[in-house]
Amino acid sequence: MNVHAPTVSHTAHSPVATHPSVCPHDCPSVCALKVDVMADGRIGRVHGSKDQRYTAGVICAKVARYAERANHPDRLTHPLLRTGPKGSGQFTRISWDEALDRVAEGLLKAEREHGAESVWPYYYAGTMGLVMRDGINRLTHVKRYSRFFASICVNPAWSGYMAGAGQISGVDPSEMASSGLITLWGTNAVSTQVNVMTHAIHARKKHGAKIAVVDVYRTPTMEQADIPLLIRPGTDGALACAVMHVLFRDGLADRAYLERYARDAAALEAHLATRTPEWASALCGLPVDEIEAYARLVGTTPASYFRIGYGFSRSRNGAVNMHSVASIPVVAGSWQHLGGGALHSMSGTYGWRKKMIEGLDRLDPTVRALDQSRIGPILMGQADALAGGGKVAALFIQNTNPVAVAPEQEKVKRGFARDDLFVAVHEQFMTDTAKMADIVLPATMFTEHDDIYGAGGHPHIQIGTKLVEPPGECRTNHDVICALASRLGAEHPGFTMTARELIDWTLRESGRGPVEALEDARFMDVGQDFRAAHFLDGFAHRDKRFHLAVDWANLSFPAPGKFGPVADMPALPDHWAVIEEADAAHPFRLVTAPARNFLNSSFTETPTSQEKEGAPSLLIHPEDAAALGVAEDDLVAVENPRGRVELRVRLFDGLRRGVVVSEQIQPAGAHRGGHGINTLTGADPVAPVGGAAFHDNKVRVVKIGA
Ligand SMILES: Nc1nc2c(c(=O)[nH]1)N[C@H]1C(S)=C(S)[C@@H](COP(=O)(O)OP(=O)(O)OC[C@H]3O[C@@H](n4cnc5c(=O)[nH]c(N)nc54)[C@H](O)[C@@H]3O)O[C@H]1N2
Ligand SMILES: Nc1nc2c(c(=O)[nH]1)N[C@H]1C(S)=C(S)[C@@H](COP(=O)(O)OP(=O)(O)OC[C@H]3O[C@@H](n4cnc5c(=O)[nH]c(N)nc54)[C@H](O)[C@@H]3O)O[C@H]1N2
Ligand code: SF4
Ligand SMILES: [Mo]
């Protein structure tokens, strides 16, 4: 237990102490926290730390009231054995020894009968702590289980950005203090990474920086914008091309910069000749004059900063759209200026050495890797999803809730219901996934274990140490992996180390150690210098140039192959017409955006978040609603070839006609009819390196009644 420099209080009804910590959730902000610990040994209020410059004392409401989640009466506190049919929710309490023996036997049986590759350890980002998130890979590699191809979140975005810049890095968000124009492209930062707004709005107050927001509905972020750019889903490539067309046409492209820093600028200029604002307007729905005005502002504001999000990449043309948008600050030459350039994510700059955490010394690339996003088709035995191997017979799951969050939910559910599939789930709550398990194991939360964190949205390494005892018999991911390893005959030095020792090893090997230094400082600013962050000595490709034309089929990206219609991808920025367009039978385009009070499927269990979000709903334009004869609060069925979901109508005029939005990932059971939102999303891989097109769905909306 780390009790480093707590702030001690002596007042009754107030915390006994306040400790530093880090938000573990999958959010680019990775806030530095101060956590109140109460007299009963549980956590109380959570505050944003003022010490760390990016957090600057601000955190989101859902984490401020984390006590509701950590001290929740429904938290899993004991291992459970399923006693009823799969999914029945009938379980009985068992001891840890029995639970671990049963999990080990489930995995060993699969290995005996179908080979090691029939076991698939499956995880994601419930906690972003390196030890607790990634340690499961050590077990995978040592046991030669099927490897995990993590594609669900970043692949369309990162492949598009990498294709241009060669690396996932960019300009420190603190430079917004010097920006003249801040474009928030495809991120609903008010909901998904509140600190972006702190810095953007500060820049506006301080020196009148303009804020532009590109989204497909009037989000709370767009409500704050000086320049709202409301487009149709999946048309960002068109808008980006028109912006660059204007830059070239009006002499606002920085030709000297392009000459020095980019490849294929002449080809781009020629190609863009036909990508006029009129052409783009017809595709994206934005009036021509709005495109012209925004493009001129980009071209005449040297310190133009693009904070590029993930949302607009969750379409079948997402990688092309990301590359197109990332090309704008290159054509404008924005990168050269303080407060100019772009940030999508800092993830490429940490240089983590994760050999000990992940057992990378034991990774055999010939062992098959299965695509996380395709868990439905995989469990259903679809040959094209099995990477040339046999069926998956056992799943060991930590840190993720695929039955709720993965696309093609009907297939996922049917797969999990297979009688010949063994499933163990290590969780904090009885999620939709845990409900389908044979064995459920109770997991700790971030204030109950030690871990280290990088961040996507700012350049800090931070440490969060154990502050309180976990409730009941909760165990950490690391402890469970190590206990399983010994039962499975898996040997690796990482299984004999404590979490703190793994942290120390990783920090030292990554050139950031030792752990004591980080514990003393709490966080370490690892930002690049100005020249490196702005790529002033060249972009990260071998030729040091930003690639305006992309050879997608040969893009270098860590993935077990290329997926989706890669051969059809346009080399130059463009509108790639591969999205799931509306048709006569499915006249609407559905976007499944994140909810402000949930984080993916997390926080759907807390009463305040439930109350603030309400029943799963559908935002629909009042004129579209009128045409369908539906009114506020009516129940509608939203249908497409993948399935049917029932939602409550919310009339909302901040949408283009023909676009509907459901903000959520609520449990299936929160929907009348029992089908969750991902029933409607597709598991076909996004080109070129997989991922799910969560915001790219054609649907029809059918009135059910009031
Ligand atoms: N409150 C909350 N915070 C979260 C999450 C959450 O679920 N809830 N999720 C976390 C995770 S895992 C991630 S990866 C990040 C993601 O955070 P963001 O980068 O913000 O990305 P998304 O959440 O996918 O979507 C953001 C916005 O993209 C818009 N969008 C959808 N399609 C398009 C399009 O075609 N074009 C444009 N321009 N916009 C489009 C959506 O309407 C939405 O407003 O947020 C994290 N933070
Ligand atoms: N329709 C739709 N679907 C989406 C998205 C969307 O925008 N729309 N977004 C997608 C994106 S970007 C992402 S990243 C995925 C995210 O999908 P997930 O990674 O599944 O995210 P969460 O729903 O937060 O689930 C994390 C789970 O981990 C558990 N957990 C947290 N900490 C720990 C721990 O220390 N140990 C263990 N054992 N468990 C822990 C939590 O209780 C929670 O149930 O969802 C994707 N799904
Ligand atoms: S804004 Fe993101 S990182 Fe910060 S506390 Fe909320 S969820 Fe955590
Ligand atoms: Mo994500």
Alpha carbon gyration radius? 25 Å
Mind summarizing the main beta sheet?
A: 6 strands, mixed
- Alpha plus pi helix count: 26
Shape: globular
> Which structural class do the helices and strands define?
alpha/beta
Give the name of the CATH architecture of the largest domain.
3-Layer(aba) Sandwich
Proportion of residues in β-strands: 15-25%
Heteromolecules bound: ligand MGD, iron/sulfur cluster, molybdenum atom
- The tally of beta strands, per DSSP, is 28
- For this structure, the CATH topology of the largest domain is Rossmann fold
End-to-end Cα distance, whole Å, is: 54 Å
Helix content: 25-40%
- Low-pLDDT stretches are 1-5
Q: Going across the major beta sheet, what is the strand order?
A: 6-5-18-17-16-7
- Give the number of domains: 4
Mean pLDDT: 97
Keywords: Iron, Iron-sulfur, Metal-binding
Family: Belongs to the prokaryotic molybdopterin-containing oxidoreductase family.
Domain 4Fe-4S Mo/W bis-MGD-type: 16-74
InterPro entries: Asp_de-COase-like_dom_sf, MoPterin_dinucl-bd_dom, Mopterin_OxRdtase, Mopterin_OxRdtase_4Fe-4S_dom, Prok_Mopterin_Oxidored, YoaE_C
Report on this structure.
The structure is a single chain. The chain has 706 residues and is α/β, with parallel strands linked by helices. The protein folds into 4 domains: 64 residues, Phosphorylase Kinase, domain 1 (2-Layer Sandwich); 232 residues, Rossmann fold; 189 residues, Dimethylsulfoxide Reductase, domain 2 (3-Layer(aba) Sandwich); 118 residues, Barwin-like endoglucanases (Beta Barrel). The protein contains 26 helices and 28 strands. The strands form 7 sheets. A 6-stranded mixed β-sheet has the order 6-5-18-17-16-7. A 6-stranded mixed β-sheet has the order 24-26-25-28-23-27. A 5-stranded parallel β-sheet has the order 11-10-9-13-14, with helices on both faces. A hairpin with an 8-residue loop joins strand 1 and strand 2. The longest helix is centred in the first third of the chain and has 19 residues. The protein is globular and about 70 Å long. The protein binds ligand MGD (2 copies), iron/sulfur cluster and molybdenum atom. One ligand MGD binds next to helix 7 and strand 10. The site of one ligand MGD has 33 residues, from helix 7 and strand 10. Keywords: Iron, Iron-sulfur, Metal-binding. This is Molybdopterin oxidoreductase family protein. It comes from Xanthobacter aminoxidans.
